[in-house]
Design goal:
With 277 residues, the chain is an alpha+beta fold. The protein has a domain of 165 residues: Protein of unknown function DUF192 (Jelly Rolls), CATH 2.60.120.1140. It is built from 3 helices and 10 strands; from the N terminus they run H-H-E-E-E-E-H-E-E-E-E-E-E. Strands 2, 3, 4, 5, 7, 8, 9 and 10 form an 8-stranded mixed β-sheet that branches. The longest helix is centred in the N-terminal third of the chain and has 32 residues. The radius of gyration is 48 Å and the shape is rod-shaped. The termini are far apart.
Length: 277
Amino acid sequence: MSAARGERVEEVGPVRGGGSGGDEFRLVWLGRAIWAVLIAGVLAFLVRGADNPPDPLLVPAGDASATTTVELDRPVEVDGEGEAALPVTTLPPAPATTAAQRSSTSSSTPSRSSGSPSGPIDASASTPAPSTEAPSTTVGVERRPLPGFGEVGFRVTSADGRIVDGVALLAADQASRSQGLMEQSDLRGYDAMVFRFSSPTTGRFFMRNTRIPLSIAFFDLYGRFVSAADMEPCPDEVADCPLYAAARPYVHAVEVAQGDLPRLGIGPGSVLSFPSP
């Protein structure tokens, strides 16, 4: 048993211990293999890197040569430039019209009109800087409201920048516009009567059963003066009372005692507005 065990130890011993010649041979081939792997790796890196795109170029901020132009697929739209847009801060130049055009022009009672009242037009922000400012022309005067009519404060900015504030009876529906100042002997302490329409109109006015002579001025959608006329009372027995029309479509008509338009600053180049209370 001891001999057998000793032989087995002898056979295994040389394999584990080995000779010095065998070890050197293995080290040489191991070194060659390592170099071969390194060289192959370097070659592979160079080959793959050559196929990649060039490195990105960083351009300092403000370098105009690196600016990229982007084309839009639709035009840029500017607010307020469309056909339906209305001026907000700037009014177009007021038309030069005479203060007394009557080609069938103006009245105490419109012949045809309908619709709900239009919103107030505030053009004061875009009118010329005033040179003077006048208070209401009826300060201290007792006003007598008229059933079926409202009351509204208004402002006129004349062509030379003068501002006049006033208070008017308001006819803003069909019934009140049809009645107007019929059967009234005065303006009941108000500066004027304002007729308001919901959209631009060409309705004409007449003076049947109106006791006092009146002047009327028309203003367009932007508050600009359109035209004016003096109107005479027309007795009920007259079959065909004269009809008074504006020179072009209007939204507001202002009636005053005949001859009072200049006192309120109303005339060519003036602007009508309704400041918030």
